[in-house]
Amino acid sequence: MVFPLPRREEDDRDMRFELQRFISFSAFPQYANVSGLRLAQAGFFYTGLSVTVKCFCCRRNQSDWRTDDDTLFRTGNEMHETDCAFMLGTDTTNIPMHERQ
Predict the structure, then answer these.
(1) What InterPro entries does this protein map onto (predicted)?
(2) So where are the chain's domains?
């Protein structure tokens, strides 16, 4: 039996690209019922393990999905570490899919 290995840190560095984060959700389980696009925009990428996502910046994992409402996405700060540069808006490594106006 072969167990999935976690992604290597070198692969995680590419996740500063929002498009790469979004693409990572192509294999995300449908039963989780969350938006890969919204998660990618919030700085998260799919780890490939169960329904676990990780912030490219603070490295915090998230896998506790409350799919009965969208509060999770409106209060996404709770998903990040309190000192996450992406969440605080001080990260300079994120490359969004589209420039925000």
Answers:
(1) BIR_rpt, IAP
(2) 9-88
How far, in Å, CA of 82 to CA of 53, rounded?
Answer: 17
pLDDT digit string (tens) for 6-58? 554 545 568 999 999 999 999 998 888 788 998 999 999 999 999 999 999 99
CB 21 within 8 Å of CB 50? no
SS3 state of residue 19: helix
For β-strands 61-62 and 53-55, DSSP reports them as antiparallel
Superfamily of 9-88 according to CATH: Inhibitor Of Apoptosis Protein (2mihbC-IAP-1); Chain A (1.10.1170.10)
Q: What pLDDT score does 16 carry?
A: 93
CB atoms within 10 A of CB 86: 19
Strands of the sheet with 53-55, listed across from one edge: 44-46, 53-55, 61-62
CA-CA distance, 20 to 95, in Å (whole number)? 10
3-state secondary structure of 86: helix
